[in-house]
C-alpha cells in the first residue's frame, strides 16, 4: 500500500566580434596595467537576460501518474490552466484531455479505477487543507465520496484485486483518522479500523488482515505497531530504549512481511523487514544516508527504493526475482522522482527533475532502449542555459558544527560584479532544502541575487543527531547558523557583503522574523512567507488532526502550558520593537497552520517602528500559494521589494 498522497536560453553574451566587423573602431590609447585589468574583469561579466516572474510562472507544473486499465493512457495533475486540475494523455504522448475544470480550487489526480474509465481526484476549499475525495464518473459527472464540512480525507490505494479502495478520514473524531474500505462499484463502505489509540495509519496488508500503525513520542522517537484485524489485537513491533524512528513503508504482496525504515542504532535510516510468521526483524539495505522510502510493484516483481543523498534523491529499482538492479536507459541530467509501475509490471511512469529542468513526465516499457518524454514543462520564453545549476556547499557554524547548503550562483556574479544575496530558510522545522528545480531560487538568481538555501541544524537528511540539534533551541542556535550563513556569503568574492537579506516560508518565515528581531544588525531586509510570529498562539491553534503528533511538536518547540515564558522569549511578536529593517510579509487567508493573525499582528507591530513594511494577503490561499495568478503577484512583489530595499536599484519593471 502506498502512503497517502501529499499535496515545489542559453547565455546571451555581448557579441563584441560581430559589432567590430560592422564598423571600424577608433584606435584607443594604450591602457595602463590597472585599466587593462579592470577592462578584462568587466568583459568577464556575462550579459544575462533577466526574465519577469510571468515567464517563470508560465512554466507548466505536472505531478502524479496513474495508468488506465489497458495502460494506454495516464492520469496526472497540472497547473496548465493557472489552477491545478486533473488530465489524461496517451502513455506515448499526445493531446491532454481535461478530467476536471476547476477555476477556483486546486484539484489533484489520485488514481484511475483499475477496470473502467472512472477516476479519483481530491480537492480542498481555498487552501484550508480539508481535502475531500471525489469520483469522476465515466460520463464526467462528479461525486463527493467524503461529504462533510470539517472532515479531512485521504485516498490510500486500491485493493490488490481492484474491487475496493481505502480511505482515511477524521469524520468520527476530528483528532484521529479511521480507515474505511469503499466498494469500487457501489461506493458502499465499511470501517476497517476505528482509531481510538491516536495512531497514524501507515500501511495495510493486501489480505486486509494486518495494519501497520505508528505513534510518535518526539520528532526523533516513535514506535511501530502491528494490528491484527482478525484477532483485534495490537502489538508493539519496535520496543526500544533511547531515541529511534521507524516508518512503515509497505507490506509484501503476499502479506507475509512488512518493510520499514529505521535509524535504531545508527545515524541514518536503513531499510528493514519484519517477517510475521517468525516474528523476526532483518536488515534489507543500508547507506550512509537516509533511505526515504521503499515500494513494491503490484505483484512484487520490483522493489523501488529512494535514498536521500546529500540533498538529492537517488532511486534504485531492483528485480526481486533475480536480486539485480534494473538497468534504465540513459536519461538527461536530473533525478528520478515519483515512480509508478503499472499493474502489469511491464512499464512505468516517472518524473525527471533537474536544476535547470522542471519535472517532466516520462514512460518506459521495460526492455525498451529509450524512455518516452511526455511533457515540456519549461516556459518557451526561457532557455535552460539562462538558468543556473545548484551546488552543495558547507561551512562551519559558530560551534564547529558543519552546515550543508544548496547554493544558486547567478551567471552574472563575478568578483567584478558583486551581487546582493539571500539566505533562504526552508519550512519545517525539520524540512530540507534540496537540489532540483526551484522556481523562486531560479527567478531570484536570474534577476541578480545569490541564493543560499541553508540546511540549519534541525534539518532532515543529515542524520538523527543533526536533526535533533535544534530541539527546544529555536531562536538561538539554528538562528545563529543563519548568521554564520551570512558570514559565509560574505566570504564569496562575488557577493556584496553589505547587501544580504533573509527569506523563508512557514518555519523559514519564523526564522526571518527572528533574525530581524533577535539579530537586528545582521540582515538588511527580511521576506516572511506565512511565518510564525507568536509560538504560543500557533501551538495552541494547531489543526485538530495534528493531535497524533502534538506532544512531539511540543518536545520540538516548547509546551504552551508549561513553557510559556520560553515561548514568549523566542516569539518575534513580543520583540517586534527591535525590528528596524524593511520587512515584507505574505500570507494566505485560509492557512490552517499559521493563521492569518500571525501575520496581521507582526505587520501592525513593525509598522509602529516607522520602517518599510509591505503586506500581501491572498484570500483564496492557505499554507502556500498554489494558483499562478497569486504566484505572479506575490513573487513579483518580492522582487520589487528586494530591488528597492536590498539591491537599491528601484523596482524591476517587466519588459
3D architecture notes:
By secondary structure, the protein is an alpha+beta fold. The protein has a domain at 41-54 and 382-647: Rossmann fold (3-Layer(aba) Sandwich), CATH 3.40.50.1820. The protein has an 8-stranded mixed beta sheet with strand order 29-30-32-31-33-34-35-36, sandwiched between helices. The longest helix is centred in the last third of the chain and has 20 residues, at 628-647.
Helices, by number, come to 12
Architecture per CATH nomenclature, i.e. the level-2 architecture of the domain at 41-54 and 382-647: 3-Layer(aba) Sandwich
* Strand content range: 25-35%
The helix content is 10-25%
CATH superfamily of the domain at 41-54 and 382-647: Alpha/Beta hydrolase fold, catalytic domain
Task: For the record, give the distance between the C-alpha atoms at the N and C termini, rounded to a whole number.
Answer: 50 Å
Mean pLDDT: 92
Mind summarizing the main beta sheet? 8 strands, mixed
C-alpha geometry: globular
Computed structural class = alpha+beta
Outline the low-pLDDT stretches: 1-43
Q: What would the CATH topology of the domain at 41-54 and 382-647 be?
A: Rossmann fold
Strand arrangement, major sheet: 29-30-32-31-33-34-35-36
Q: Measured on Cα atoms, how large is the radius of gyration?
A: 26 Å
- Name of the CATH first level of the domain at 41-54 and 382-647: Alpha Beta
- Report the strand count: 36
Amino acid at each position: 500500500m502506498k502512503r497517502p498522497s501529499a499535496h515545489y536560453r542559453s547565455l546571451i553574451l555581448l557579441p563584441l566580434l560581430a559589432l567590430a566587423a560592422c564598423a571600424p573602431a577608433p584606435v584607443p590609447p594604450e591602457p595602463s596595467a590597472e585599466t587593462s585589468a579592470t577592462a578584462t574583469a568587466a568583459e568577464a561579466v556575462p550579459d544575462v537576460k533577466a526574465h519577469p516572474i510571468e515567464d517563470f510562472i508560465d512554466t507548466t507544473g505536472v505531478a502524479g501518474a496513474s495508468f488506465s486499465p489497458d495502460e494506454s493512457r495516464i492520469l496526472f495533475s497540472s497547473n496548465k490552466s493557472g489552477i491545478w486540475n486533473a488530465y489524461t494523455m496517451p502513455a506515448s504522448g499526445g493531446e491532454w484531455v481535461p478530467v476536471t475544470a476547476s477555476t477556483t480550487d486546486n484539484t489533484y489526480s489520485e488514481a484511475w479505477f483499475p477496470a473502467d474509465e472512472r477516476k479519483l481526484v481530491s480537492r480542498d476549499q481555498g487552501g484550508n487543507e480539508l481535502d475531500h475525495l471525489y469520483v469522476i464518473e465515466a460520463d464526467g459527472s462528479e461525486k463527493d465520496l467524503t461529504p462533510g464540512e470539517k472532515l479531512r480525507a485521504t485516498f490510500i490505494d486500491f485493493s490488490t484485486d481492484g474491487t475496493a479502495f481505502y480511505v482515511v478520514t477524521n469524520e468520527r473524531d476530528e483528532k484521529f483518522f479511521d480507515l474505511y474500505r469503499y466498494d469500487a462499484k457501489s461506493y458502499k463502505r465499511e470501517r476497517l479500523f476505528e482509531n481510538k489509540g491516536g495512531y497514524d495509519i501507515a500501511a495495510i496488508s493486501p489480505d486486509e488482515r494486518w495494519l501497520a500503525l505508528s505513534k510518535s513520542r518526539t520528532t526523533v522517537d516513535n514506535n511501530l505497531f502491528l494490528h491484527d484485524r482478525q484477532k483485534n489485537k495490537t502489538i508493539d513491533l519496535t520496543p526500544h530504549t533511547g531515541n529511534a524512528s521507524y516508518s512503515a513503508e509497505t507490506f509484501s504482496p503476499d502479506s507475509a512481511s512488512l518493510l520499514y525504515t529505521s535509524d535504531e542504532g545508527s545515524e541514518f535510516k536503513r531499510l528493514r523487514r519484519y517477517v510475521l510468521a517468525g516474528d523476526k526483524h532483518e536488515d534489507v539495505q543500508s547507506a550512509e544516508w537516509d533511505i526515504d522510502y521503499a515500494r513494491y510493484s503490484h505483484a512484487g516483481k520490483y522493489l523501488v527504493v529512494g535514498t536521500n543523498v546529500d540533498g538529492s534523491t537517488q532511486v534504485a529499482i531492483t528485480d526481486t526475482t533475480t536480486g539485480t538492479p534494473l538497468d534504465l536507459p540513459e536519461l538527461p541530467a536530473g533525478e528520478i522522482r515519483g515512480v509508478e509501475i503499472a499493474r502489469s509490471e511491464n512499464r512505468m511512469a516517472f518524473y525527471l527533475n533537474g536544476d535547470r529542468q522542471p519535472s517532466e513526465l516520462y514512460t518506459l516499457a521495460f526492455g525498451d532502449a529509450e524512455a518516452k518524454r511526455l511533457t515540456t514543462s519549461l516556459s518557451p520564453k526561457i532557455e535552460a542555459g539562462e538558468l543556473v545549476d545548484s551546488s552543495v556547499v558547507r561551512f562551519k557554524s559558530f560551534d564547529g558544527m558543519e552546515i550543508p547548503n544548496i547554493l544558486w550562483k547567478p551567471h552574472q556574479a563575478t568578483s567584478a560584479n558583486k551581487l546582493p544575496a539571500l539566505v533562504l530558510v526552508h519550512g519545517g522545522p525539520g524540512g530540507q532544502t534540496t537540489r532540483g528545480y526551484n522556481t523562486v531560487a531560479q527567478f531570484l538568481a536570474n534577476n541578480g541575487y545569490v541564493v543560499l538555501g541553508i540546511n540549519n541544524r534541525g534539518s532532515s537528511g543529515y542524520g538523527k543527531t543533526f536533526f535533533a540539534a535544534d530541539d527546544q533551541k529555536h531562536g538561538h542556535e539554528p538562528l545563529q547558523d543563519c548568521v554564520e550563513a551570512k558570514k559565509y556569503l560574505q566570504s564569496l568574492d562575488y557577493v556584496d557583503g553589505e547587501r544580504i537579506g533573509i527569506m523563508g516560508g512557514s518555519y523559514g518565515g519564523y526564522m526571518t522574523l527572528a533574525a530581524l528581531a533577535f539579530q537586528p544588525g545582521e540582515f538588511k531586509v527580511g521576506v516572511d512567507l506565512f511565518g510564525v510570529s507568536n509560538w504560543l498562539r500557533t501551538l495552541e491553534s494547531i489543526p485538530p488532526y495534528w493531535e497524533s503528533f502534538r506532544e512531539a511538536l511540543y518536545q520540538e518547540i516548547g509546551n504552551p502550558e508549561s513553557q510559556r515564558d520560553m515561548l514568549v522569549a523566542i516569539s518575534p511578536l513580543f520583540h517586534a520593537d527591535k525590528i528596524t529593517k524593511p520587512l515584507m510579509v505574505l500570507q494566505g487567508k485560509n492557512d490552517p497552520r499559521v493563521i492569518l493573525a500571525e501575520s496581521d499582528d507582526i505587520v501592525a507591530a513593525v509598522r509602529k517602528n516607522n520602517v518599510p513594511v509591505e503586506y500581501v494577503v491572498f484570500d483564496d490561499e492557505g499554507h502556500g500559494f498554489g494558483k499562478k495568478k497569486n504566484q505572479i503577484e506575490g513573487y513579483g512583489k518580492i522582487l520589487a521589494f528586494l530591488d528597492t530595499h536590498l539591491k537599491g536599484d528601484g523596482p524591476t519593471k517587466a519588459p
